[in-house]
Write a structure and sequence with these properties.
By secondary structure, this protein is of the alpha+beta class. The protein contains four helices and six strands.
């Protein structure tokens, strides 16, 4: 009986950890899946159209529909329409825990929705911000479910930046706190990161998206220190 009691105590202590690890693994798998499928969809679009760079060629999100179709989207909203859809949360949060103000800084929500948002068949949702140089695509890999926060279930990518493939959103590399909230302060894609200091919580760290693609795990949670 004593042995069974000890086993029960140990199980009760380890179960939340195991569940937490399992949830983290699901989120990481979602990031990797989205990055892979988005990359394939962009490549297919380029092969079908002969185009190289999607950015700067469209004043609205309609051109991206061809790429989103390859991602199997089931619903779409454009600009202010996104305020009333049921598949987006009211708010989402950047890496610092502040409500995201736009797509480039972690908004996949009814507030800060960008130019368009898409719901995918697997439950993921992403929002699009059109930029003259590239498109910012920010995805919530478990859709409306919480925590709706950058570095946990929300991650940002760029399409068309420098005519390259799908990259982590880290085009704006600076020490500005607002930029740090999503992008980190160094550019892995441009070789500007210190390989020994990629922790997004630290000065000069990488973007949360880059961290996941590099290490296949979620980055540390920013606690304000």
């Amino acid at each position: 009986m004593v042995t069974l009691g000890i086993i029960g105590v140990v199980s009760a202590m380890t179960m939340p950890v195991l569940l937490g690890n399992s949830k983290d693994e699901e989120l990481v798998a979602g990031v990797l899946k989205f990055h892979s499928t988005l990359s394939q969809a962009v490549m297919m679009w380029r092969n079908n159209t002969g185009a190289i760079d999607i950015a700067g060629s469209d004043a609205d999100a309609s051109l991206f529909d061809a790429i989103a179709k390859e991602l199997k989207y089931t619903a779409k909203c454009v600009k202010s329409e996104c305020k009333s859809v049921g598949w987006l949360p009211d708010y989402s949060y950047d890496y610092l825990g502040v409500k995201g103000t736009n797509v480039q800084f972690g908004a996949v929500a009814k507030q800060g929705y960008g130019d368009a948002c898409y719901l995918l068949a697997d439950g993921m949702a992403f929002c699009l911000d059109i930029n003259p140089n590239y498109h910012c695509v920010t995805v919530d890999v478990n859709g409306k479910k919480k925590p709706n926060r950058v570095g946990r279930d929300i991650f940002s990518f760029t399409v068309g930046y420098n005519e390259t493939d799908v990259l982590p959103e880290e085009a704006h590399c600076s020490g500005n706190t607002h930029v740090l909230s999503t992008h980190g302060t160094c550019c892995i894609g441009e070789g500007k990161c210190d390989a020994s200091n990629l922790d997004p919580t630290q000065k000069g760290g990488a973007a949360p998206t880059s961290y996941v693609l590099l290490y296949k795990k979620l980055p540390p949670i920013y606690n304000g220190n």
